[in-house]
Amino acid sequence: MVMHISYDILSASKMPSQEMILVENLSKSFSTHKVVDEVSFQVHSGETLGLLGPNGAGKTTTIRMLTGLVRPSSGTITVGGYDVLKNPIEAKRLFGISPQEASFHPHLSIAEDLYFYARLRGLSRSESRLQSRDTIAWAKLEEHSAKNGRQLSGGMQRRLLMARALITDPPVLYLDEPTTGLDPQSRHALWDYISELKGRKKTIILTTHYMEEAEMLCDRVIIIDHGRIIAQGSPSLLRRSVGIDSVLTLKPRRPFSSADLLVLKKFSGVMDLHSSNGGLLIHLKEKESLDEIVVTASRLAGIEELNLKEPSLEDVFLQLTGRELRE
Amino acid sequence: MIPRAVSASLVTFEREIYDYRKNLFLFALRNLVQPFFFVLVIGIGLGSMVSLPGRESYLSFMMPGILMMCVVQVCYQHFSSEIWMSKNHEGYLELLTMTAPIKPHEAVAGYLLTGIVVAFFAVLCFLLPVWLFLPGFKISLAALILFTIGLALFFTSAGIVVGVTLLDPHNLSTVSIFVTMPLTYLCGVFFPLDMYPQPVRMLIEAIPLTQAIEGLRSESFPLFEIAFVWAAAALAVAVAVRIFEKNMRL
């Protein structure tokens, strides 16, 4: 994507280049319900931070506070050294957002929609026309430029939202669940786009429900639950931090009884086990008793399939946030 | 170099007017059908059987009221639905608040400017055929311009307040009935205010639309009525900015 911006946004940043976003003691309550509770983190320039959490954990409210849409009950947010509440105009010049919900004007084509968005972001008419055209090309939507955004497929809409966030080439991007509801092809295509943005050293905050996505794209992740940060670090650090060495999945020939599960749980090295989809998932903190576990499980219920793998971010996530449904 | 705040308001204006221009025929049709029917059915039809002492014709008596009703219709109807759609359906206002380097009052200023322009367009659409078919119809252009601006500001502000506050689209049409219907029938569009008992008349006269209609009918230049309408408009604009800001930041 060729950018033709007449001013250098990065040079407008007041912050030392390594710390682009700084969030300190951020809280938000709606009446008596505390949605975000004393959250603090920073995002370095060029870093991709994943915000993970179950539904209702406070991710979207955090993003909305970062943009200034939701006023925090307490705490401060600075983007590029500008306080989002005290200097909203300067701060907003530094970031773009691809929101969770698609928002398109019902009477405007995507070219017109992008043109006016660029104008609102402070570009001149000629710059806006140029950027609108380049942005459509970047999102590979040239053939659809005369259509309304609502006429596009889900994947195209997501590409368009991301392209719109980039129209003034801001150094910071908030991507709020950019791949939710997409088919695998569209999701992989969007991952390529996000990887390209990482290559361009954009500072990105990505909220997602897909652990695979966070693992692949994020340099660091923060797991939020009940409005609080419960873990943070690189995906590999988090995988190590919960103490899971490996995950053993067994598909028994006959269902395990409760007594069988108690027997298996007593082996040294077994952290916990969960029945899921007719199978058994065992988190191991060491592999010392692995052969005994497999032999015993085979004796108790027979084994049709078994799989041993390193823990994924999803295992860590479920370990930290629990398996109960939140909605 | 245009200051950023002015430029931000002008971009909102540019976008709104672009949308309006794209759907000009539909917007014009939606807002001008009712006034034209009033002229045809009540003004020309029923009006031929009515004579008002000291007035040229019933139609010329009614015309200022219909003109000002055009402004109310265009500004209130257009902006209440436009802002509601932008906030609750398109997500545009949320996007604007989140990412555009524009302050809420600057966006409101853009909407108000659009309101003034579309109000003049509506007045012109109505006046041109009237001048064509009723060449004797006279009106003070200066007063018309000042009342149009004042009422456009007042009713665009009212539309913004309703559009940004209501959540249920069904309530949008209900509130609209309660705003436009009493104004149409009570503010002296169709009959002189002398018909009201004094206490009721005082209440009716407190409505800016009444002042605008009476001002346009006045023999002398309606300075008091213009000041009244503009003062009400200033108050309405202040309220609209406050409510828009409050509703756009959660």
Question: Helix and strand layout, with pairings?
Answer:
The complex is a heterodimer of chains A (327) and B (250).
Chain A: H1 9-12, E1 19-30, E2 33-44, E3 48-52, H2 59-67, E4 74-79, E5 82-83, H3 88-93, E6 95-98, H4 110-120, H5 125-138, H6 154-165, E7 172-176, H7 184-199, E8 203-207, H8 211-217, E9 220-225, E10 228-233, H9 235-241, E11 246-252, H10 258-265, E12 270-276, E13 279-284, H11 290-301, E14 303-309, H12 313-321
Parallel strand pairs in A: 3-8, 3-9, 6-7, 7-8
Antiparallel strand pairs in A: 1-2, 1-4, 4-5, 9-10, 11-13, 11-14, 12-13
Helix pairs in contact in A: 4-5, 6-7
Chain B: H1 4-22, H2 24-45, H3 58-89, H4 92-99, H5 104-133, H6 141-165, H7 169-186, H8 198-205, H9 208-217, H10 223-248
Helix pairs in contact in B: 1-5, 2-3, 3-5, 3-6, 3-7, 3-9, 5-6, 5-10, 6-9, 6-10, 9-10
Question: What descriptors fit this protein?
Answer:
heterodimer; A: 327 residues; alpha/beta; Rossmann fold; Alpha-Beta Plaits; 2 domains; six-stranded mixed beta sheet; four-stranded antiparallel beta sheet; 14 strands; elongated; disordered N terminus; B: 250 residues; mainly alpha
Q: How many strands of chain A?
A: 14
Average residue pLDDT of chain B: 88
Number of helices of chain B: 10
Q: How many discrete domains of chain B?
A: 1
Distinct helical segment count of chain A: 12
The CATH topology annotation of the largest domain in chain A reads as Rossmann fold
Q: For the terminal residues of chain B, how far apart are their CA atoms?
A: 34 Å
* Helix percentage of chain B: over 70%
Largest sheet of chain A: 6 strands, mixed
* Unreliable stretches of chain A: 1-13
Radius of gyration of chain A: 23 Å
Shape descriptor of chain B: elongated
Radius of gyration of chain B, CA atoms, in whole angstroms? 19 Å
Pick out the low-confidence regions of chain B.
none
Q: What is the overall shape of chain A?
A: elongated
Strand order of the largest sheet of chain A: 6-7-8-3-9-10
Q: Could you tell me the strand content of chain B as a percent range?
A: under 5%
Q: Estimate nothing, just give the exact number of structural domains of chain A.
A: 2
Oligomer: heterodimer
Secondary structural class of chain A: alpha/beta
